[in-house]
Write a structure and sequence with these properties.
The protein is α/β, with parallel strands linked by helices. It has two domains: 7-126, Rossmann fold (3-Layer(aba) Sandwich), CATH 3.40.50; 137-240, Arc Repressor Mutant, subunit A. Helix content is 38%, strand content 20%. The protein contains eight helices and twelve strands. It has a five-stranded parallel β-sheet with strand order 2-1-3-4-5, sandwiched between helices. α3 (63-72) runs parallel beside α4, α6 packs across α7 and α6 packs across α8 (201-213). It is globular.
Length: 242
């Protein structure tokens, strides 16, 4: 996502839409708004936004259903999504992450915190290796993780769709293959500790990654859970490039 790409705010509360639009515009961002899934669809038919800020509770099609639908469509699967949820609704936040949201923020929130999270997701989406380095790839269990294109390919060369957060998490595990990484260490490596102390996004994203790369996600062979420790990519990893 380019830093000047348009951000689409989807929220049925006009006051919140207008407030966020003014605030983000003031901070140099291009903003569009939609009040529900229908307006979102009309917007997507005209152009693809660089990011979607999506409220969970919407009239008609709710935010979880919209998120699931966007992730299932090749045209919209890679659009970063920050989901807004009601305070204390942890189950909804977990389901939102399972559906493919890149981040979430509980209401009520300070617009500055949303701005910080948007920038963090944008940085992850735009992350590229330094210009002086060669393309870096990690190969493991038939998969190829390409850090330049931020893509994962299976043994047949087919693209495995990953969200930005999933890619960052798998990359961190590949970079430290064979080493147990705690949830806090993974958050430091992928999100800069922006999450709260009881953040479960690592667990949710690990679960999603397992469904995409493991033969049996319930009995994983590649990403193993270490009780009381964290997670480890347990297979051999070949690193190409510098």
């Amino acid at each position: 996502m380019e830093m000047d790409a348009e951000i689409l705010i989807v929220d049925d509360d006009r006051e919140i839409r207008d407030l966020l639009a003014r605030f983000l515009t003031k901070h140099g961002m291009k903003v569009a708004t939609a009040r529900d899934g229908q307006e979102l669809n009309r917007h997507l038919s005209l152009k693809s936004p660089g990011m979607i800020v999506l409220d969970l509770m919407l009239p008609g099609e709710d935010g979880l259903s919209i998120c699931r639908r966007l992730r299932a469509d090749a045209q919209t699967a890679s659009i970063p999504i920050v989901m807004l949820t009601a305070m204390g609704e942890e189950t909804d936040r977990i389901i939102g992450l399972e559906m493919g949201a890149d981040d979430y923020l509980p209401k009520p929130f300070n617009p500055r915190e949303l701005l910080a999270r948007i920038k963090a997701v944008m940085r992850r989406a735009n992350a590229t290796p330094p210009a002086e380095t060669k393309r870096l790839e990690f190969r493991f269990a038939g998969f190829r993780l390409d850090t330049e294109s931020r893509s994962l390919f299976d043994a047949e060369g087919k693209l495995v769709e990953l969200t930005g957060g999933e890619f960052d998490l798998l990359k961190a595990l590949a970079e430290h293959a064979g080493r147990v990484l705690t949830r806090d260490q993974l958050l430091d490596l992928t999100r800069g500790r922006m999450a709260g102390p009881y953040d479960r996004s690592v667990d949710i994203q690990i679960s999603r990654i397992r469904k995409k790369i493991e033969q049996d996600a319930k009995e994983p062979d590649l990403i193993k859970t270490v009780r009381g420790g964290g997670y480890v990519l347990s297979c051999p990893v070949q690193r190409n490039g510098t």
